[in-house]
Amino acid sequence: MNVMTKSGLEVIPLSRHIGAELRGLDLSKPLNEADVAAINKAWLDHIVILFRGQTLTQEDQIRLTEYFGPVGALGRPPKFFPPGFKSLLPGVMMISNIRENGEPIGALPDGEMMFHHDMIHHALPHDGTMLYSLEIPDHGGDTLFASGYAAYETLDPALKARLEGRRAIHVYNYGSTQRGDSRGVDSQARSLHPVFRTHDRTGRKSTYVNRLMTVGVEGMDDAESAPMLEALFDHTEKPEFVYTHQWRVGDVLLWDNRCSTHARTDFPADQRRLMLRTTVAGNVVPV
């Protein structure tokens, strides 16, 4: 059901469990306190929020990100930056398959990407990610979002009992889009976080593992943990928990990494795709 906030912002759910489009704001202009409160509430309520038809500078995107918290630093070291990063402000990341002299100007340039949480492989994962579309292919390159809340709340009680209170092991190589592929650069980043995460602002629990980056469970050997993790991945990615976003130029999406995973579908390699990404910095993950 559509909701109109006191500030005149229209909130339109995009699926049963995750996602809402917000209408009535020009994000290139500073927002008042009522609008900031409304978009924060919509974010916590819907996990993913969408604004269409926006025209932003990098400064605008940073200001918009700051309405949700401090801007997160880029995870990858500068020595691994693609050439297009030279044109970016601190805290802004370019995701693009555009090539100059045969080299991609941005990160994560090509193809399908497995479900994952941004920065879960670090000790302090980012709370949120904002993506702004500048160029898109005529088909493909969709982003899928899965609700970790819905997955946790419908999980088989026996599996939940076996993993409750456990920590999962997460590893990621910068640039990898499929687990075990050869695209990534070894980041040496490794983290331990609860298999089921309690959201620090909503108090709700969600699944907090993903197919791309989660490699094991602390205190379990692979023979024991692998089947349980595979079952958890499959459950979390069920279509009924997922919203699929088909991009348009000028879309701004913000998603909550604390309680959702996201993935990308394949798209034509000969068509340009250009996005600018910022993140909301996070804190210690609560158990």
Plain-language structure description:
By secondary structure, this protein is α+β, with helices and mostly antiparallel strands. The protein has a single domain, classed as 4-Layer Sandwich (Double-stranded beta-helix), CATH 3.60.130. Helix content is 18%, strand content 31%. It has five helices and 19 strands. The strands form five sheets. An eight-stranded mixed beta sheet has the order 1-2-3-4-17-9-19-5, covered by helices on one side. Strands 8-18-10-16 form a four-stranded antiparallel beta sheet. Strands 12-11-15 form a three-stranded antiparallel beta sheet. It is globular, with a radius of gyration of 18 Å. The mean pLDDT is 94.
* Lateral arrangement of strands in the main beta sheet: 1-2-3-4-17-9-19-5
CATH class: Alpha Beta
Oligomer state equals single chain
Residue share in β-strands = 25-35%
Using the 3D structure, state the CATH architecture.
4-Layer Sandwich
Helix coverage percent: 10-25%
The helix count comes to: 5
Q: How confident overall, as mean pLDDT?
A: 94
CATH superfamily: Clavaminate synthase-like
